[in-house]
Write a structure and sequence with these properties.
The complex is a heterodimer of chains A (280) and B (299).
Chain A: H1 2-37, H2 41-45, H3 59-67, H4 71-102, H5 108-119, H6 123-136, H7 143-168, H8 172-179, H9 184-195, H10 197-213, H11 216-221, H12 229-239, H13 244-264, H14 266-279
Chain B: H1 4-37, E1 40-45, E2 48-53, H2 57-64, H3 66-98, H4 105-116, H5 119-129, H6 136-143, H7 159-184, H8 189-197, H9 202-230, H10 234-239, H11 251-261, H12 265-296
Antiparallel strand pairs in B: 1-2
Classes of the chains: A mainly alpha (280), B mainly alpha (299).
């Protein structure tokens, strides 16, 4: 009896220590990002760093925009590209997902497998041909090119996740409506969509975050006016790599909106994505 | 008019058509085109592309290319270590989080943070943490008496690759943990109750219930993480640009550099297709693992 109690106590301590280490290791780097974005350059380069209250300032945040006046443009570009890609992916993907889940399309499985397969492919494979096409069309360095290319990873994932949600709707309601004479389009628009608002929204948030954070295609397809926030951050960090506080302020600004979204919608995102990926 | 079934099917085609059209244009066409590009000597000069068909010469050149071979080995090494480390650590984290102590909402937020932050911001942050002179990591290690001289994390061949590896592991563990957590939550609790009645201790329960039940999820995690490790780019681009001495040039970065810095598009496409081929095999494995779910949904 006594020995078992000691065993349980030891087990609990392992769990507590493990959880503490997990939180510390995950959060500490991000905390350092926030803290150093609020500290003066001199305080950061002192040995050891000077953490007295006089070291803290908001100057880095104002300084970032002064040093890189186009940063605002970058955020606007990111917002527009992410919003449009997400809206198109949902508008085109939701009907397709419903058709694949419910409308007995011949070869639905083959289509699904291909959709899932393309989702796994490395971006570089499509990046080179798409770059050539965009060059011929004169679309390099336009937001339109980014919206189009971002559909290549957003549309498959949107179809995949939404199909899972549509499958989970009890088919009885749709059958009843069909018996009452509703067309398939009416059933989708008037019954399925209204009860799927929260999964639609969660999927949208997911697609928005993925687009906002995207770097690789933006690096290849933009030059000047269509540069997105991640691209500006990387260039800013390359150009002012010794202005540590401002670099962190720029990074903090770029991650703040999506971190807020992720925290607000954490349950939907985790459920939808993790289960969609595992369950199939 | 047709039967109800036929009408539903017709509506289904109409609903599916736009999505398929988009996917063919931005995925299927580029994939096929990438194959064709890799059979050409294609260089970008002055805004135009001059291509000449050369058969499989690009692929032949790959075999003799020392940079490519080094990148191939480095990528294999990087991927193998990352997959093992990430899946083991994520399993540990997931097990901690199913414990009653680990079920507070705050832990779920912590889990999502590294995924949500932009990879570029993450890379810039770690470059600062690892800065040889002013980085907080060297400061901490010095204060703790663990090092005497500053470590040049990103400027030492060999070490740089492992530093990038550690940062990528840090970023990947929470997401794979989410995946494993979803798998853990589906293990029927009755199994544990029965095992406890039979007198099984925590380790035996883990070995004989948790692990077998979790095996499909672990397989999915291994494949997904392998695909993601093969693709690593943002961290390398921001933190090392492939240096020092090409020590962190992994395949995806090499394909990018060959294509968009050296403007050798055909050769770059050939390297990209090597990554594509490996990914395709893995993707097929992933689909094969998911096949019960697909069949259930069969149309």
């Amino acid at each position: 009896m006594f020995r078992r109690r000691i065993g349980r106590l030891a087990g609990r301590s392992v769990v507590v220590v493990g959880l503490a280490m997990f939180v510390l290791i995950t959060v500490a780097p991000l905390a350092w990002l926030a803290i150093s974005s609020l500290m003066e350059q001199q305080a950061l380069t002192a040995k050891p760093p000077d953490f007295s209250s006089s070291s803290f300032t908001l100057a880095n945040y104002t300084g970032v925009f002064a040093a890189a006046a186009q940063l605002g443009q970058g955020f606007a570009n990111s917002f527009l590209v992410a919003s449009f890609t997400t809206a198109i992916a949902i508008a085109v993907g939701a009907p397709a997902a419903y058709a694949l889940a419910r409308l007995s399309i011949p070869g639905a499985n083959a289509i699904l497998v291909m959709i899932l397969g393309t989702q796994m492919l490395p971006g570089i494979v499509i990046a080179i041909p798409l770059f050539i096409v965009m060059s011929h069309l004169g679309l390099v360095d336009t937001r339109l090119a980014l919206v189009i290319v971002y559909l290549s990873f957003n549309l498959p994932i949107v179809i995949w996740i939404l199909r899972g949600f549509f499958l989970a709707i009890p088919p009885g309601i749709e059958r009843a409506a069909a018996v009452d004479g509703a067309t398939t389009a009416q059933i989708f628009r008037l019954i399925v969509l209204p009860i799927s608002l929260s999964p639609l929204f969660a999927t949208g948030v997911f697609a928005f975050i993925e687009s906002w954070n995207e770097f690789f295609f933006a690096l290849i397809l933009t030059r000047q006016s269509a540069r997105t926030a991640p691209l500006m951050i990387s260039q800013f960090a390359g150009q002012y790599q010794t202005v540590f506080g401002q670099m962190m302020a720029a990074a903090a600004l770029a991650i703040a909106p999506v971190v807020a979204l992720a925290i607000l919608f954490r349950n939907m995102i985790m459920k939808g994505f993790a289960e969609g990926m595992v369950k199939g | 008019m047709g039967t109800l079934e036929q009408r539903r099917r017709r509506a289904g085609y109409a609903a599916l058509a736009p999505a398929l059209l988009v996917l063919v244009l931005i995925l299927a066409y580029p994939i096929v085109d990438s194959m064709l590009l890799s059979l050409q000597d294609l260089r970008a000069a002055g805004g135009t592309f001059e291509g000449r068909f050369i058969g499989f010469s690009n692929y032949g050149a790959l075999l003799a290319d020392r940079t490519f071979r080094a990148a191939l080995w480095a990528t294999a090494y990087f991927t193998a270590i990352e997959v093992v480390a990430v899946v083991l650590l994520a399993l540990g984290v997931a097990l901690l989080l199913v414990h009653p102590f680990g079920r507070f909402g705050i832990f779920r937020i912590v889990l999502l943070l590294p995924w949500a932050i932009a990879p570029v911001a993450n890379a810039v942050l770690w470059k600062w943490i690892l800065h040889a002179n002013y980085g907080i990591l060297n400061t901490l290690l010095t204060e703790l008496g663990l090092i005497e001289r500053n470590v040049i994390w990103l400027g030492t061949p060999g070490l740089a690759l492992h530093t990038v590896l550690a940062v990528d592991i840090w970023k990947s563990v929470p997401f794979i943990a989410i995946l494993l957590l979803a798998g853990l939550s589906k293990v029927p609790p009755v199994l544990y109750r029965a095992a406890r009645l039979d007198g099984a201790n925590a380790w035996q329960q883990f070995l004989h219930i948790t692990l077998p039940q979790l095996r499909p999820t672990i397989a999915v995690a291994v494949i997904l993480q392998t695909l993601w490790s093969l693709r690593i780019f943002d961290l390398i681009f921001v933190m090392t640009k492939g240096g020092p001495a090409d020590g962190t040039v992994l395949l995806n970065f090499l394909a990018y550099r060959t294509t968009f810095n050296f403007l050798d598009l055909g050769y770059g496409a050939a390297i990209a297709n090597v990554i594509f081929a490996v990914s395709l095999v893995l993707a097929l494995g992933y689909i094969w693992l998911l096949r019960p779910g697909l069949q259930k949904a069969g149309g």
